[in-house]
Design goal:
By secondary structure, this protein is of the alpha+beta class. The protein has helices at residues 8-28, 94-100, 186-192, 254-260, 302-308, and strands spanning 31-32, 35-36, 47-49, 65-66, 79-85, 88-93, 102-107, 110-117, 122-127, 129-130, 133-134, 137-144, 147-152, 158-160, 165-168, 178-179, 182-185, 197-199, 239-245, 248-253, 264-269, 272-279, 284-288, 298-301, 313-314. Helix content is 15%, strand content 35%. The strands form seven sheets. It has a five-stranded antiparallel β-sheet with strand order 3-12-13-14-15. A five-stranded mixed β-sheet has the order 4-18-6-5-17.
């Protein structure tokens, strides 16, 4: 959700008042921002208004791209979400996603949606299909566990980003296909994919893309909205690489990957060998399968991963044998 004040303290006060008000509204009638929450898969009282109304944070529906050598206003160290599929690579700068959160796009032969929740630090991409339907998504203005709830314009169903599932509406219970995506620097992505396209700031909206509306948020332990999680000795905003294999979740905190000291190692997740690759320079981590293919994994804040995966295992480098990648859960 977009911050409307640079002061986190002042904004938090307004949020607290909004939460109290929203709880009263939810108990009176399960409708928020025009969305019917009756029978939602998550507790209705935990779905909260983030401040902006529906589409108050506008999605990008006609994205414009530039080539890697064209002026895009990006620095080498700027963070992007990168996706490569069907011989096409695309990068989506976080400095743009911070203001829009949803990009409806195509890559190769697929309709996709790229999503980013600044409050959770989570970037995820999905195929935009539910059965025979191709969906277009917008920002609902609602949150669950501090994570953005997007909605599809075809059925008005609400979708949890991190769950990758519709939690209310006609498509309730439907899951989207998650696509592998890499959270890394523009310099790293461009090196890996010299022919990549990059989303430009020609969005059709008047936004100051040179300013981060969430500046300082990642450094404080405070959350702007409630989320149920256990600290487990980690800072709430510690970046982790989260992965689910055969129904079992595991988190790789960046601080533990730093302690490991290896750029790449193999770990066991639910009986599956997973190669974990980490770059301190690019503040980036990824999971690869035995064939070296990028697996579906999400980089995000610890509190968000733990809120949606309370039984997650946690990689601990302190007990690892040198070069083994062994870890405690």
């Amino acid at each position: 959700m977009r911050l409307r004040k640079t002061s986190l303290v002042g904004w938090s006060t307004r949020v607290a008042a909004a939460i109290l008000l929203s709880n009263g509204i939810v108990h009176a009638a399960p409708v928020l921002n025009g969305f019917d929450l009756q029978g939602a898969l998550v507790p209705v009282e935990e779905i909260l208004p983030g401040g902006p109304p529906r589409d108050g944070i506008p999605s990008i529906d006609r994205p414009k791209f530039a080539g890697p050598k064209e002026p895009a206003g990006l620095k080498t160290e700027d963070m992007v979400l990168g996706i490569s599929q069907g011989g096409v690579a695309k990068a989506y700068p976080l400095r743009i996603l911070n203001w829009h959160e949803v990009v409806n796009d195509r890559i190769g032969a697929d309709d996709i949606v790229v999503t980013y929740c600044p409050l959770c630090g989570s970037g995820m991409a999905f195929r935009s299909r539910a059965g025979a339907r191709t969906l277009k998504f917008g920002v609902s203005g609602l949150l669950y566990n501090s994570d953005v709830l997007v909605y599809d314009r075809e059925t008005n169903s609400l979708w949890s980003q991190i769950r990758a599932q519709a939690v209310s509406g006609e498509l309730k219970g439907t899951k989207l296909t998650v696509l592998p995506i890499l959270h890394t620097t523009w310099g790293d992505w461009r090196r890996r994919h010299p022919d990549t396209l990059v989303l430009t700031d020609k969005t059709g909206f008047d936004r100051d893309y040179g300013r981060n509306p969430y500046s300082g948020y990642e450094k404080t332990a405070d959350l702007m909205f409630p989320a149920k999680f256990r600290a487990e000795g980690l800072h709430p905003k510690e970046l982790v690489l989260g992965i689910v294999v055969a129904g079992k979740a595991k988190a790789y905190p960046f601080i533990e990957l730093e302690r490991n000291g290896a750029a790449e190692f193999t770990d066991d997740v639910s009986g599956t060998a997973v190669r974990v690759r980490y770059s301190r320079e690019h503040r980036s981590a990824e999971a690869l399968d035995a064939q070296g293919r990028r697996m579906v994994a999400t980089t995000l804040f610890w509190f968000a991963w733990a809120a949606f995966h309370p039984e997650t295992g946690i990689y601990r480098a302190a007990v690892a044998k040198p070069g083994s990648g062994a870890s405690l859960k």
